[in-house]
Structure formats: C-alpha cells, structure tokens
Write a structure and sequence with these properties.
11-stranded mixed beta sheet, 387 residues, globular, Pectate Lyase C-like, mainly beta, 11-stranded parallel beta sheet
Amino acid sequence: MKSFRGRAIPGAILAPLTLAPLTLALLTLALAGCGQGGGSAAPAASSAHASPGAASSGPAPGTAGSGAAGSGAAGSGAAGSGAAGAGDSCAASGGVSVSSASELNKALAGARPGEEILLAPGTYDGSFTASHSGTADAPVTLCGPRSAVLNGGSVSQGYTFYLDHASWWRLKGFTVEGGQKGVMADGSDYDLIYGLFVHGTGDEAIHLREDSSHDTVSHCEVRDTGLVEHFYGEGIYVGSAHKNWCRYTHCQPDASNDDVIEDNNVASTTAENIDIKEGTTGGQIIGNHFDGAGMAASAATAWVNVKGNEWTITGNTGVDSIKDGFQVHQVYPGWGVGNVFRDNDAQVNGPGHGFFVQNDRLQTVVACDNEVSSAALGFSTIACTPA
C-alpha cells in the first residue's frame, strides 16, 4: 500500500478549527440527559502513516487494503454497537413513558419545552412528527434504547421521523428504519440527533433542509440507504440542490448553515456518505468514519461531496471509495468556495484522488497533514497547504 502527502505551498495559511461553543453545549446536554448509558463513540480506524513527498502528481497502485480500518467499517461492526452508548439510556424519572405508536403520537403532539419522552423497547409502526419547539434552556427530548424501533414501513413514501419546524429537540439512542427518508428536519434549528441507528431507507437516512441551522448529528450509525433510487441514497444530507430552492426556500439558497456532523459511522449508502449542498455555509464535518462499500457508480464518486461554502472537514477516516475520497465542486455560481480539509485519513483503495477539487479558483485548503493511501491518481488535484 502506497501512502501520500502533498507538495506544500510555502507561506500558505491554514485556518484553525474551533468547535462552536453551542455544539459543545448541545453534546453536554445529550450526555447529561442520557443517564448512565455506557459505550463510546464510533472508533476511528488506525491511521496509515504517509511517506513525505509530492504526491499530487504521478499514479500509484490502488491496491486493496486489509487493515483495521477496512474491517472495522464493514457491516455492523464494533463502531456501530458503540455509537448508541451515550444515547441508549434515558433519565429515570420526570419523563413521559410511551410503549405504542398511538402513545408516541399523543406525546409528540403535546410536547412542550423541557419535556422528555421515553421510548420503551419495541416497534413503533408509522410516520412520526414533532412540530412544537423547545427552548435553549428547556429542549424537548425523545429518548430510547436501540431496541426501540420507529418503523416507517414502505420505503417509497414518508418520513419516519419528521422535525417539522421544531427547534431545540434532542433525539437520542433509538432506531429509525424504513420510510422514504429516515430523519428529516425542515426549518428546525439547534436540534441534536445523537446515537441513532438509521437504516433501510428509500432515499437518504438523515436530511437537514429548509434553512435548518446550528443542528448537530453525532454518534449515529447509518446503513442501507437508497433502496428505491440509488441517486438519492445519501447517508447524511445538508441543504437542497439549487433546482429545488423555489420549492423549499422561496427561490433563495437553502441556508442550512453552521451544522455539525461529528463522530458518525456511515457505510452501505448508494450515494455519498455525506452530501453538502450549494447554499449552505460554515458547517463542520469532524471525526466521522466513512466506507464506500455499496456505493453505486451512477450515484456517487466519493465519500464526501462539498458544494457549499466555508465548511471545515477534519479528523475523518474513510476506506474503500468508488473513485475519490473527498470532493469539492461548484455546481452553482458563488458556491463551493473556501472549504478547508485537515488531518483526514483517506484510505481510498480506488482509481481516483484522495482529494478532488474541481479547480483552484475555489480557494480550497487541503492541508498537508491529511493522509492518503492507495489512491491511483495520488494525493490531490491541488497542492497541499502547510498545517
């Protein structure tokens, strides 16, 4: 296996990463509200240490890797079982306990700031909607173990769980399966989606849309998307394509801004593991584990495709891409600009680059501390910037 580092540009500056205080506060609230649930975040795969050199030019053999990263990302390995840890146990008192779909619907309809809805183990058939907001001091919580399963049924229609202009919610620990989309957020801000297992959806698993901002998706496990249409089978999707702005955001960019996607384990998606749309700004993709197994060539060519502005992508590990590891594109004028990649481990095992940037006018920073292995076309389409 051949590893790469890129050619540095003397004097270039890499913008430092800072995790927003709000994100830290949301994660603290999640951990505090989850009781004594054990477990840990999805572990990052072991890093392949790159050899120094100008890797942005010259082909390298795309040999298949068989290291810990590859085995750890497949199927429902250890990372998946650990992802539920902090979210699989709810507070022992003060909540509304439900054990049937009708009870859940009633609790959601009556939810008020500060309320906690506790899911008992079992299957809850149907599509469920939250439409009342919490507050910064008193978020609304829906919490349950992995064995509490919201089953949306047909993968051809519906949202299994829908945050419909519902801000300051915490979804923790349970399973979401079926439906055309797993978890959908429209016009919903400051929500935390934590430790869910979302799988078996017709299209994408988790979608933040219609100006949903300051949301955090953390410690979730995503599997088996795109069961109806491969092209729409993203794992985690932020924003809307520009052709849909008139449908969702009054013909303006879908400003789903400042969202954080952190410490998730995403695999077996037919399209990208993460798709960041034009119109979005200032989000962060941190410490996730990606796997390209199951991607369809007609639907994806990388784990992560960034088309928004000023996103920071750092500390992620990916294995076995269908082509490139990470990509930046401009599909609409003014977008795809100013994105930063640092300290990622791209174990590509594929025919492309570790980092594909559409052109050097997009002001993309690919730091030299990123590591790339087994990418047939090398480190990146642009030279790296000193970390």
